[in-house]
Every structure is written in C-alpha cells, then in structure tokens.
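sry for the spam today, last one i promise. struct tokens for design, 494 residues
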C-alpha cells in the first residue's frame, strides 16, 4: 500500500470563498431569489467559490440583454477592425491575469496548475486568431449573372448565441467558441459548468475592461435543467454552441430542433491510438501515457484505447507500465503534478465502477486500479487494463478517467476495425515508420482528427470536431467565424 498523498492546503483554504455575481447587461447581479452554488476544490476539499445561481428570471433577463445588444447596440454594426481591437485587448488582459485564471481552473477542476497555464496560453492564442478572422470574414459577389444583374452574398452575424460549456477545460473551451461568435458580430449568453464557473466570470470582467459593450456577453452560473435547457429553447436564440457529453448533446439538439436553431456540438470520444511494430516505440509509449492520463483522462480527446500489435505487445506495454508508474499524481497546485484530482466523488465512483466491471468481464488490471488514499481531495491511480475485448463496456463507453484499455491486433484490417468499432469519432492516433501504414490508417479511421506519430496537439488554424456521435460541425480553423453567420443573398437589378 502506497503512503497516502499528502495534499498541502493552499492559502485560499483559510480565506472566505470567492464570490461571483452573474453578468447581465454589463452589470454584476445577484440571483433574484438569492440562491448560490458553492464549489469545493476537488483536490483539497474546501469551498473555493460561491456563484450566484441563475434561474428562469435571470435567463430571461440575459436573453433580453443579448437581444437588445444585437438589435440596437453597436457591436454587430461596428467595423471589423474595431471588433478585432477589443478581442486583441482581451487577449492581452488574459495574459496579464494568466496565473490567476490558471489557479482558479486548477482549484475548481482539480487539473494540474502547469497544465492549466498551458491551456490559458492556448486560449490567448485562440483569441488573437479569432481577431485576425474578424478582419478577413467576407462574402461573395457574382458579376457573371448577366449585364443587368449583380449578385452579392453577405455574411451577417447569426444573432444571439447560447454557449454551454463543460467542466474539464473551463477557460479553454469557452475560448474555442466565444471569440469567434464575437468576431462575427454576435451577442451571447454563456453558461459554464456549475462546477467550474469562476474563470468564465473573470473572462466576463476582462471583456468589459477590453471595451465590449454592455449586453454583448452575459454569463450565467447554474445547472443544466434550470439554466442550460431554457437557454436552448429560448425564442430569442438563433444558435446553440454546446460542448459536453453525447447524452446531453442529443437532448440539446432535440430541443433546439423544435425552433430550428442552428447547433454546434462538440461531444464525447472513445479514441484509439494504434501502435505498429515499426514505430518509434519510445515516443509511442510516451504518447500512450500522455494520451491516457492527461487531465486525469477527463478529456474528450483522451487516447483511452491503446491498440497494439501482438508482436510488440508485451515489451511495449512493459515500457508503458513503467512510465505510467512514474506519473506524478497529487496536489493540483504543485508544479510537478501530472495527474490531479477527479472532478467529483460521484464521477470517481463511476470511473472505479468501469474498472470493476472490466475485471468481471475478463480484463486484467496491469497497473493501478485503485483510489489513492489522501488526506484531502479525491484521486485515482493511473490504470492500465489488458485483455480488453471490443464487446466490453470499457472498450466502448467514454470512461472519462485515468484508465487505459489495451486491445491487440495482428493485421491492419483488425486494427482499423477496432478503431472504428465505436459510436464515437472524435480523434485517433497512429504510430508507424511506414508512410503507407500511416496513410492507410489516417484515411480509414472515421474521426475528425487523426494524429500521425504525435498525439493531442492542437492549433487554432486546424478545425476540430467529431464524426459520428462525437459531434456536429467544427470549431477553430479559418471557417470558425463563418459558423456564427448567416448568408444573405442580395440581387441588384438595373
Ligand atoms: P455534460 O453534458 O454533463 O454538461 C455540459 C454542459 O451542459 C454543462 O454546462 C451542463 O450544466 C450543461 N447541461 C446539462 N444538462 C443540460 C440540459 N438539459 N440542457 C442544456 N445544458 C445542459 O458534460 P460534462 O460532464 O460537463 O463534460 C464532460 C463531457 O464533455 C464528456 O463527454 C466530454 O467528452 C465532453 N467534451 C467534449 C469536448 C469536445 O470538444 N468534443 C471537449 C470537452 C468535453
């Protein structure tokens, strides 16, 4: 039995929880009924934040504010260069508050602080990229329709957008949506996860300081049923941009369809990394551990299925096991930590339940598998399960924890079959020195992203999203702003 983790209490533990008010029409407001949500740090166990909890009245007020800002405010009407200037200023302000934001995300989500810093750095890059797209967004013109006709296709902002985000990358995911909606000239109502809302509220303050007019961005803390659902059905909303589970994504899309709202869906994943014998096995082993345990596996892109060629399985997995046992699990606020706390006790139990079920189904826990004893917070040991077969729940369902399932193959056809044998299609990885092999896998895997001899890298320039039940639409990339627009055709006759 390992010694219990010794989690040091940070300075925040002896302070009053930070309080956050809702942001509606440029003002910070309490909920009308005075309700609040308390968030305890999953890594330490003390209440770190208290948010005003929105209800129906606040959803209505936020919608009215966003609608007014869209219909009569300056934001959709101003020059793109002026909108870009606000986004660039926001990026600069995020940079000056990077440490504060990273700490909030680490405290509320349990992710390692060093990783959180990297995410905020990535978010800054995205805000700057979106600013560049604001200025290059353009429509089309057609002078080939006859001498008396000119066709012009405008790209207009779509209107009020509801943005709903999950808890696993609190600041990064809102930054994959909001700057593009703003670049297009839209207004928004944003609902972060009820567990990790603090950094989104900080973002709201930053946007006001950067010069965003009142009402353009409204931020509500609250639960899915009370706040998320009415944000999806509200008649003033034209588009819903949702990131979260496939289960809630389906409900959200069904609700949005009642009023034919546009949807953008970034949902779950069950991603495979396929390792061939001719690969750089050292790099592949590093990527297996990184892919499996990054963000404690609470990651849509987690490489949760390791699909290894039989010929190298024993040696390769021995190397992966050694590396995984060196992964430093512990205090999210410790710079050296690689795997932090699990988001909630319920979620940890769910993940542990998958491990138990895998054992019953014939899986073999090769390393890890246990809850780690600690003086505070909730932590799981990075876990690898061998002898997994395609029919097992652990091979099919999104576990969302630090659990790597190993499946093996002898032919490329079998590897592809395993990789594609899931309702999800978010991402995949392939490791081989053969360009033929890499090309075959990259072309045949049904997923929105395929990493070849690398894993889980992301760039604002590259579109991201899922095939199959991993989502609908793409975020990032040069068309990201277009997603938040309508096309209007104007025909000029003389
Ligand atoms: P979730 O679906 O439980 O919640 C996501 C958001 O939806 C939260 O803000 C929640 O309050 C809200 N919500 C819940 N019920 C709602 C309803 N009925 N109507 C409207 N909103 C509602 O997901 P989660 O547990 O917060 O996040 C984990 C999931 O997110 C995983 O499945 C993960 O794969 C997915 N995810 C996907 C991506 C991607 O880019 N594809 C990125 C990160 C996370």
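last one done:
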């Amino acid at each position: 039995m390992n010694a219990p983790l010794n989690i040091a209490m940070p300075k925040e533990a002896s302070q009053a929880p930070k309080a956050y008010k809702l942001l509606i029409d440029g003002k910070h407001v309490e909920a009308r009924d005075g309700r609040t949500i308390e968030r305890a740090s999953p890594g330490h166990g003390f209440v770190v934040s208290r948010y005003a909890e929105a209800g129906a009245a606040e959803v209505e007020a936020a919608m009215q504010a966003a609608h007014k800002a869209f219909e009569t405010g300056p934001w959709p009407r101003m020059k793109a260069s002026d909108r870009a200037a606000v986004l660039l200023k926001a990026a600069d302000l995020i940079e000056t508050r990077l440490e504060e934001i990273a700490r909030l995300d680490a405290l509320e989500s349990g992710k390692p602080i060093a990783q959180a810093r990297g995410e905020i750095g990535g978010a800054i890059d995205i805000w700057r990229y979106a600013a560049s797209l604001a200025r290059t967004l353009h429509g089309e013109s057609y002078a080939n329709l006859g001498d008396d006709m000119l066709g012009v296709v405008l790209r207009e902002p779509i209107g009020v957008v509801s943005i709903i985000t999950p808890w696993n990358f609190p600041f990064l995911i809102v930054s994959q949506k909001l700057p593009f909606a703003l670049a297009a000239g839209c207004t928004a109502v944003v609902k972060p996860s009820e567990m990790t809302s603090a950094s989104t509220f900080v973002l709201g303050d930053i946007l006001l300081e950067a010069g965003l007019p009142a009402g353009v961005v409204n931020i509500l803390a609250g639960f899915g049923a009370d706040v998320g659902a009415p944000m999806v059905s509200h008649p003033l909303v034209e588009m819903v941009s949702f990131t979260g589970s496939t289960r809630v994504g389906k409900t959200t899309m069904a609700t949005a369809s009642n009023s034919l709202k546009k949807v953008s869906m970034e949902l779950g994943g069950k991603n495979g990394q396929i390792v061939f014998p001719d690969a750089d096995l050292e790099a592949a082993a590093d990527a297996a551990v990184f892919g499996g345990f990054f963000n404690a596996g609470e990651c849509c892109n987690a490489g949760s299925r390791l699909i290894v060629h039989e010929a190298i399985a024993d040696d390769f997995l021995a190397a992966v096991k050694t590396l995984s046992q060196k992964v430093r699990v512990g205090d999210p606020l410790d710079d050296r930590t690689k795997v932090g706390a699990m988001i909630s006790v319920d979620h940890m139990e769910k993940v542990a339940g998958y491990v138990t079920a895998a054992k019953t189904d014939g899986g073999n826990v090769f390393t890890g598998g246990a809850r780690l004893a600690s003086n505070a917070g909730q932590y799981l040991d990075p876990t690898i399960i061998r002898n997994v077969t395609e029919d097992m729940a652990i091979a099919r369902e999104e576990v969302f924890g630090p659990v790597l399932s190993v499946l093996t193959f002898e032919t490329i056809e079998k590897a592809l079959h395993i990789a594609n044998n899931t309702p999800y299609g978010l991402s995949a990885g392939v490791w081989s020195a053969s360009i033929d092999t890499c090309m075959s896998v990259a072309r045949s895997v049904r997923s929105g992203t395929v990493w070849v001899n690398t894993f889980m890298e992301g760039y604002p320039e590259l579109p991201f999203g899922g095939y199959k039940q991993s989502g609908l639409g793409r975020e990032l990339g040069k068309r990201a702003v277009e997603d938040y627009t309508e096309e209007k055709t104007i025909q000029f006759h003389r």
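The CA atoms of residues 204 and 219 lie 7 Å apart. ok im logging off now
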